[in-house]
Amino acid sequence: MSQTYLALDTSATASAAVLRDDDVAAHRSTGSQRNHSEVLAGFITEVLTESGIDPSTAKGLDGIFVGVGPGPFTGLRAGIITAQTLAHTWKLPVYGVLSLDSLAHRVAAEAFRIGAQEFVVATDARRKEVYWAHYDNIGGQPQRLYGPFVNAAHEVTELPVFGAGAGLYPEELFGITGFTDAVPDATDIAAYGTVALRRGRGLQPVEPQYLRGHDAKIPKQLRP
Amino acid sequence: MKHPIVLGIETSCDETGIGIVAGTNLLAHQVASSMDEHVAFGGVIPEIAARAHVTEFLPVLDAALEEAKVSIDDVDAIAVTAGPGLAGALMVGVAGAKALALATGKPLYGINHLIAHIGVGYLDASGADLSNVNQLGALLVSGGHTEMLKINSLTSDVELLGGTIDDAAGEAYDKVARLIGAGYPGGPIIDKMTREGNPQAFTFPRGLSAPKNMGTPAAPGKDRYNWSFSGLKTAVSRAVEQFEIRDMEVPATDIAASFQEAVADVITKKAVLAATEQGIDHILLGGGVAANSRLRDLLTERTQAAGIGLTIPPINLCTDNGAMVAALGAQLVADEIAPSALGFSADPTQQVSLISV
Ligand SMILES: [Zn+2]
Predict the structure, then answer these.
(1) Which SS3 state, helix, strand or coil, does residue A116 take?
(2) Are B226 and B217 in contact (CB under 8 A)?
(3) Taken in order A156, A162, A168, A170, is the CA torsion positive or negative?
(4) Which chain A residues are within 8 Å of B50, Cβ to Cβ?
């Protein structure tokens, strides 16, 4: 039976895709890291319409996958609240995918080709840090061993690194050529999500993976 | 459309509010607040507020639909606060509202939070009778704003007469409450303390009230209708210090009462002056500080003396909520204002002249 999913990711850039029977039916993304809540609704309308799905009913859609980060908070929240609200209104299931896992899924074949048994995926966490996780490579299928974490680049485990984090910190991280500007995308989220759904493991709760606290300090006068 | 059913979403600060109206009839009014999580910090922490909005959005939406006994299909339009407010907090409501509009095909209005505080006055539940009002004005006083507005047309022409040039009145309350060790939020705590205190014990400054700020009716100074609370806050801080360096007990209730007197005096004096000079014959009070006993009493007294009408809506409609957003949305639909394109941005510093985006 034909399966059709909408996927979103706003952990770095903003993107939306429709995956039908494991093929990308439509895709939109922006290179910008800043205007997620402006572009996302338009992207979703476009990918659905292009796939022959009426956005106001979502008839023909089987579910939604959304990247839950980690990623800069404001953009990340835009994607998650969008996915939750769409699923709630359309009465469809929504599944969370760790955005780093989806990027690991994309790069695993290359890691296997270059003989990297274990590897790291790292993205920009701003404030001179990266979001990252450590993967084992089982025949081109990534298995997350540790993470996700947020750290300064020099604290990341010394392994080949895929993802934009490597491009930002070339001194500290051993970036793999061709992957030093890679960021998670809705097509990765969909690809990873459908595999995880079939296997019955690897999905996440649909809530933002902040990894950092809110940073607020209790003022001096209010401390006990 | 005469009585459109509109669902309004408000997330500009620490309240996740969703309300539903049919024209001027309030059908649902649901609010979840993250206030408890901010108490320890003595002020609203934007990131805490934004995180709470994500958690609360759908539960509050469901509660509102249930209270109104309508389904989302019955709704004619959706409205959401686009600004002004906290960027991260606004973004959650805006993204959620866009998703709701997209998933239902309903028109969406990105609206101005300040104008929504006025819009709530058009609801039957506000208790206002605006039918014989010639020129409506609004005084908004809260933790986020202190503004005097002239409403020529709610949906197309609102004029900012005056505002605060530094802190909002509610912020000044929070800061003073912190200075005298009274807790948070400052508004209700200080208001309660004043019952035991002497409002004449200290003479605290009324900001921007000097002749050079005020000018004359013929040659008004540029701050004639503006407020400033930073000098007042400094004066309170000095008073507290005077007692502390002498190791004397700080007369907290007298300071609280004198501070409140200064705030209520300068706000109401300037608001009534602006109304009188600008031909305003009815003032609508909005914002959380509308709950303040002294502000209400003094404003009532002074508007009466000036022959100006006054509406103070029920306090749960004065504080931030979704019903006010829905109320403004319903007026926009009724006036056939075009809905917003789904690409609009949340605007943390949205000007009052931009009523809907
Ligand atoms: Zn407000």
Answers:
(1) coil
(2) no
(3) positive
(4) 73-74, 77
If you write DSSP's letter for every residue of B102-154 in order, what string do you get?
A: HHHT--EEEEEHHHHHHHGGGSGGGT---TT-SSEEEEEESSS-EEEEEEEET
ipTM of the complex: 0.96
Which residues of B fall within a CB distance of 8 Å from A80?
Answer: 54
- In percent, the amount of chain B with pLDDT more than 90 equals 90
Smallest Cβ–Cβ distance between B102 and the set A38, A55, A215 belongs to A55
* Token couple for A17: 């895709």
Tokens at A142, concatenated: 């990534």
Q: How far is A6 from chain B (nearest CA, A)?
A: 13
Peptide bond into B84 cis (omega under 30): yes
Residues in chain B: 357
- CA–CA gap between residue A195 and residue A174 (Å, rounded): 29
Give the global pTM.
0.95
pLDDT in tens, A19-48: 999 999 999 999 887 788 899 999 999 999
What sign for the dihedral angle of Cα B297, B303, B305, B308?
A: negative
Query: Domain A4-98+184-199 maps to which CATH number in 3.30.420.40, 3.30.70.2740, 3.40.50.150, 3.10.450.50?
Result: 3.30.420.40
CB contact under 8 A, B92 and A221: no
Instruction: Tell me the three state secondary structure of residue A81.
Output: helix
Domain ranges of chain A: 4-98+184-199, 99-183
